[in-house]
Amino acid sequence: MRKSRRMPLALLAGAATLATLAACDSKGDTAAPGAAGPIKVEATDSACTVSANTVAAGNLTFEITNKGSKVTEFYLYAEGDRIMGEVENIAPGLNRRLIVEVADAGKYQAACKPGMAGNGIRSEFTVTGGAAKAADADAQKAAATKSYADYVANNTAALEEETAKFVDAVKAGKVDEAKAGYARTRVYYERIEPVAEKFGDLDPLIDAREADLQQGQAFTGFHRLEKDLWKQGLQADSPQIADKLLTDVKDLVAKTKTLQLTALDLANGAKELMDEVATGKITGEEETFSHTDLWDFQANLDGSKGAVTALRPLLAAKDAALVSTLDKEFANVQALLDKTRVADGFKFYTELSQDQIKEFASAVDGLAEPLSKVAEVVSK
Amino acid sequence: MSEVSRRKLFGLAGAGVALAGAGAAAGIGIDKATSGDAQASTNTVDFHGEHQSGIVTPTQANLHFAALDVKTKDRAKLQELLKKWTEAARRMTAGQEVVPGGAIDGGTYAPPGDTGEALDLPASNLTLTIGFGPSLFDGRFGLAAKRPAQLIDLPLFPKDKLDPARSGGDLCIQACADDPQVAVHAVRNLVRLGFGVTEVRWSQLGFGRSSSTSRAQQTPRNLFGFKDGTNNIKAEDTDFLRDGVWAQAGDGQAWMAGGSYLVARRIRMHIETWDRETLDGQQGIIGRTKGTGAALGQTAEFDELDLQVGGAGGEPLIAEDAHVRLASHQALNGVRILRRGYNFVDGSDGVGHLEAGLFFLAFNRDTRSQYVPMQQALSSKDAMMEYVQHTGSAHFAVPAGISPTGSWGDALFA
Description:
The complex is a heterodimer of chains A (380) and B (414). Chain A is α+β, with helices and mostly antiparallel strands and 380 residues long. Chain A folds into 2 domains: 7-16 and 137-379, CATH 1.20.1420.20; 30-130, Immunoglobulin-like, CATH 2.60.40. Chain A is built from 12 helices and 11 strands. A 5-stranded mixed beta sheet of chain A has the order 3-9-8-5-6, with helices on one face. In chain A, strands 2-1-4-7 form a 4-stranded mixed beta sheet. In chain A, strand 1 (39-43) and strand 2 (48-50) form a beta hairpin. Helices cover 22% and strands 19% of the residues of chain B. The longest helix of chain B has 19 residues, at 75-93. Strand 6 (82-90) of chain A pairs antiparallel with strand 6 (309-310) of chain B.
C-alpha cells in the first residue's frame, strides 16, 4: 500500500486547487489588495470591531487582537455560512493573523466568537472587484469523472466478490486455493488504490504492510494473511482476520459509492499509482512474502490507464501531444510486463534479474514524468 | 604549543590566496608559534570549552561522519586511543597536521604520519565531535554502570527500513568543515590512528548543511527544495539549549553533564517521485511555501506557525498530516531538538535513481522524551513519509567539552 496518504487533503485537493486557479485568473483585474495594510479586528467579550468593512478582492489579511477575557475565534463567512477562513483558539491578549484569498466580489460576514461558542458577533463585510465566478463545471470534466466512477464501481464490485472467495478459502484452511486467489483478488484493490486511500481508516486495516505498522497497531488485512499463507502457516486467528478483511472491504465498497471525485483527483491518482510502482513494487517491498509484486504492478498500471482513459477526451482537446506521449509510454511499460508473463500470471519478484528491475524502473520513470503533467493540463 | 598551520607551512606552494606575507615569513618546515594569525582566527573553531564544538557551532558546509566499533577488549587500549585522538583532533582543528612533521618531514623511509590531502588547506572551521554508542556500555570495558538511561536502543519506528550496515556503532566521530576534504582528512587520520583498536562500521558524507544553528545563518534548503530547520533551536536560544540540549549533572549520569545525546538517521529521499508532485501538493505536505519558507497562512519565514488557522470550509491550512505540524513544538507539548543535518547523494541506487537524502543529525538532552515522541508522530502520520525512508539509525552519548589538557575519554573513564 501507499505508505500514508493525506486523506482529507486529497479529498479537498481538487476543489481547493480549482478555487486557487480561479483566484489567480482574477488577479489581473483587481487593484492590489492588501495595499492598505492588514484589516484590524478587535475582539472583546461583547464586540467585534473590524477596521474596514469594504475591501477589494484578493488576499485579505486580518489581524485579530483579543482584548476580551475569553478565548475567542474569528471567521470570515461567505453566503450560507460557508467558511472562507478561520482562526481558532485566540487567547486573551494575543494577536493572530488570518490570510484569506477572496476572489469573488460579494457580501460576506466577519464573526468573532468569544468563548468559542454560538453564532458569534457578526458584521457585514463587502468585497468589491474580483472576477465573475468560475465557469460552470466543464462538461468534459463531468464526463471524465462519471466515466471513472463506473470504472471504480466495476472494480469494487469485483473486489468484494473475489475477497469473499479468498476469505472462504482461508477459513476452510485451503492454503493452495487461497494462495492462488491472493494476487488475483488484490488486483482490484491495487487498480483503485488512490480511491481506497481516501478512506484513511480503512486502507491501513486492509492493506498495511507489517513494516509500516505503528507500535501497538494490530497487523490485519491482506498482508497479514499473505504472511500466514506463505510464511508462518495459518494461525488460530486467521479466520477472524479473514472475516474482518471482508467486513472492511465491504465497508470500503459502500463508502466509495458516495465519493465525489474531481477531474484533478483522477489526474493525481493516475500519477500516484505509478509512484506506488516506483517506490513499492519495483523494490519488491509490497509483497514481502508472496513476491507477487508484478501482479500489483500490472494492476497499478491498469488503474493509472483507467484514469487517463476517462480523461482522454479532455486531454486530447487540450494537449494532444501529451496524449500520444502517454500512449507510447504506457505501451512501453506494458511490453516489459508482458515479457514476464507466466501462464495467467507473472514471474515472482525474486525471479527478476537486476537488469530487468532497472529496465522497469526506467520505463516507469518514463511514464510517470508525462503523467505528472496531466493535472496541470486538466486544471487549465 | 601552537604551530604554524598547514596553510602557513605550505602557503608558498598554495594557490595564491591572500596571506603571502605571513606565509613567506614562516617558511616551510619552521615549527614555531605565530601570533596574530588573522586567517587562523577567522576559520578555526576552538576545540576546547564547556561543551564539545560541532553542536551549536554555526553549521559548516560539509560533513564526514563515521561510526566505529571497538575491536579490542582492552580498556587501557581504548583509553589510550581516546587520548591519541584528542591530541590529533586538537591539532587538526587548529589547522595543523595530525602529528608534527606529518606529511613530508618524517623521514623518507617511514610512511608519512599525516596523509597529506589537507596540506595547503586552511582549518576550514573544522570541528571534531566524539560520541559513545549504547553498545560501548555492554560490559567489555567495565562501563555498564556508566550507561546513561537516556542512551536507549532506539525503538523501531513505523516504516523504518534500517540497514544494519548503516546503523549503530560503539563510537562516532562527527567531522564538520567548510571544505569537504578537510573533514575527510580528519576522519581518515583518526581512523588510521585507531587501526588495531577500532574499525569503521559505516561512514557518511554530507554536503549543503540542511539546518542552521545560528541566527546569523540563512536557512538552507534540503533536497526537496524546501527550507529546512526554520524552527530549529539556535545557538542564541540559550534557555532552550540549557533545557533541551545539554545534559545536566542531575540527569542520572554525572559524567555526561555538559554533554548531549546525538541521534543520527540516514533518511533516503525518493526525490524522483517527489519531483512529480505538484507545487500545491509539495507545499501541503511540508506545510510551508516553497519560496519564502513561510508557514501556510503566514507571510514570512520566521512568522510563528499558527496551527489553528482554517481555510475554505474550515479545513486547517496546515493539514493534520503536514510535516511542520507534526514536527512542531506546538503539537509536541513543547518538545524541541537541535538539528544539524546534511544532504547526501551516495551515487545511485542501481535502478537509475539517485541514492539521495538527508543525513539527519540531532542533539537533545533526553532522546526518550524529545526525539522519540517526535519521530513516532512523524513516522506514523507525516504525509512526507511517502517520499522518505529511514535506512540507517544510530544513537550516541556525546560527552561534555574538555580543557586544553583533557582527553575525550576523561569523563567516561574517570
